[in-house]
Design goal:
Alpha-Beta Plaits; iron; 4 strands; alpha+beta; Fe-S_Ferredoxin; single chain; about 140 residues; transmembrane helix
Length: about 140
C-alpha cells in the first residue's frame, strides 16, 4: 500500500510539473495533510502517506544495517518510543517489558538513539537471513 501511495504522489507531482494539473501541488496537498493530522497520529503519516517516510522505508527490507536495542542495557523507560516519529519501536510485554525496532518503519532519523540514557540503541549489521527464514517470510 505504501508503494502505491508513493507512486500516486510521484504521478501527481510530475503531472503538476508538466502542466497537466493546473493547481499548485502544495494547495492540492495542504487540505489532505490537515485532515490526516486531525484524524491520524504522526506515525500513521510517516508510515503510510509521507513521501519521504515511504521512500526511506522501501529499502529497509534489503538494507544491511539495522538499529537494534541491546536488552542488557535497556531500562525500558520508553523515551525512544515517545520520540520516534514513525512509531517504529514496538513493545514486547512478555516475559518482561522490552522494546524492539521494526526495520520496515524505521526512518533512520536517530532520534531514539539520541534520547537513550544508557546508549542501548546501536546501528548494527543485520545478519543474513537463512534460506529457511526467507521461505517462512515469503509464506
Amino acid at each position: 500500500m505504501r508503494a502505491v501511495i508513493f507512486i500516486l504522489f510521484l504521478l501527481v507531482f510530475f503531472m503538476t510539473l508538466r502542466g497537466i494539473i493546473k493547481i499548485n501541488l502544495i494547495v492540492l496537498l495542504a487540505p489532505f495533510a490537515i485532515l490526516i493530522t486531525i484524524f491520524f497520529t504522526g506515525a500513521a503519516w510517516h508510515r503510510y502517506l509521507c513521501p519521504f517516510g515511504v521512500l526511506f522505508s522501501l529499502p529497509a527490507g534489503v538494507s544491511r544495517w539495522r538499529f537494534h536495542i541491546n536488552p542488557d542495557r535497556c531500562l525500558a523507560c520508553g523515551r525512544c518510543r515517545r520520540v520516534c516519529p514513525a512509531g517504529a519501536i514496538a513493545v514486547n510485554e512478555a516475559p518482561e517489558k522490552s522494546y524492539r525496532i521494526l526495520p520496515r518503519y524505521c526512518l533512520f532519523c536517530c532520534a531514539c538513539q539520541e534520547v537513550c540514557p544508557r546508549s542501548s540503541i546501536e546501528l548494527t549489521a543485520a545478519r543474513p537471513a537463512s534460506s529457511r527464514e526467507k521461505m517462512t517470510r515469503n509464506l
